[in-house]
Task: structure prediction
Amino acid sequence: MRKVVVVTGANSGIGFALCERLLSYDDQIRLCLGCRNLQRAEAARTALLSSHPTADVSVLLVDVGKVTSVVRAAKELKERYKKVDYLYLNAGIMPNPQLSFRAFIKGLFSRNVINMFATAEGILTQKDRITEDGLQEVFETNVFGHFMLIREIEPLLCHADSTSQLIWTSSSNARKSAFSLSDYQHSQGQEPYSSSKYATDLLSVALNKQYNKQGLYSSVVCPGLVMTNLTYGIMPSFFWTLIMPIMWLIRVFTNSFTISPFNGAEALMWLFNQKAESLDPLSKYHSCTSGLGNNYVCLSKMDVDEKSGDLLLQKMLELEKEICKKSIPDYRNS
Ligand SMILES: NC(=O)C1=CN([C@@H]2O[C@H](COP(=O)(O)OP(=O)(O)OC[C@H]3O[C@@H](n4cnc5c(N)ncnc54)[C@H](OP(=O)(O)O)[C@@H]3O)[C@@H](O)[C@H]2O)C=CC1
Ligand SMILES: CC(C)CCC[C@@H](C)[C@H]1CC[C@H]2C3=C(CC[C@]12C)[C@@]1(C)CCC(=O)[C@@H](C)[C@@H]1CC3
Result:
């Protein structure tokens, strides 16, 4: 049976590089590009087909920042496929990022310098906004929209006789101290991105507990620091081009400067080839690039506890009920 792979945020950056790599590895997969913009999605599909003309590549319009769009997309998926083997939960945003130059300079001369380059701890904040569903945009896009998608296509993901994998693009910027269960959408603080990625890590742990017995497994990945539209929102692309020699130099000291989307997709690609049951639900899988430019995958234990994961899952289920009642009047009948 040909494997069905769905990738959200597939039209650019790490998502697009992953699609290229998946097709180069196995052009028999049925690849579905989950994107919010039809033009950008079609451009990505055309580019993928130009290098893999016989591949099965389709587009699924989905805005993970809008509950109605997620529900519609899930319905479409249920009409198209009997099973989804891999669901890459990759779409993500970091709106209005602000770099603290003072904290950056201070960090440069501290013992924490390597950690600062790998995680951006203490130097990056963002400004969030409320979506039309009434949720924090970063939380809805990076976490809740994806969670809804999983819930809506549960029958495609849970099969007694074979496994499916959820693969989240998380980040080493995920930090426990940026997250609070009492404000899990991060409406109060200034680090919604870090909070959303920590929520992703917690949720993945809880989803494994909930779904493993039904054949569904969840993992989280950090792609490292990659040059994409997301990082061009922090500093313009010419800045990154100018400092590229410095970036290569930093790579000698930290393996997290993967830099290219191809390298960043390493761990996402590696997970595609693993037996789902053999994966560690409490580890994060990192794409790494050595000083000489070689790619590999390494694991780190996540700073998570199962109880917080369960509590977050409970809160997400309550929110799902509340939001669907509000945004989709005849929900469960549709
Ligand atoms: N770049 C980096 O250094 C790192 C990135 N990551 C994570 O990697 C993932 C991919 O980001 P990256 O490739 O870097 O950045 P890009 O901005 O290049 O890609 C993000 C993708 O997500 C899509 N997207 C954003 N919002 C939505 C939405 N509401 N609905 C559907 N799709 C949406 C974008 O679509 P559109 O083109 O329409 O905007 C785009 O295709 C993100 O989750 C990010 O947090 C993690 C660690 C490091
Ligand atoms: C390298 C240069 C000399 C100076 C660049 C300074 C900062 C702009 C970067 C240093 C660490 C970077 C980083 C990220 C963004 C750019 C930096 C803050 C991320 C937060 C991007 C998104 C992620 O998810 C993280 C994994 C990155 C962590 C490191």
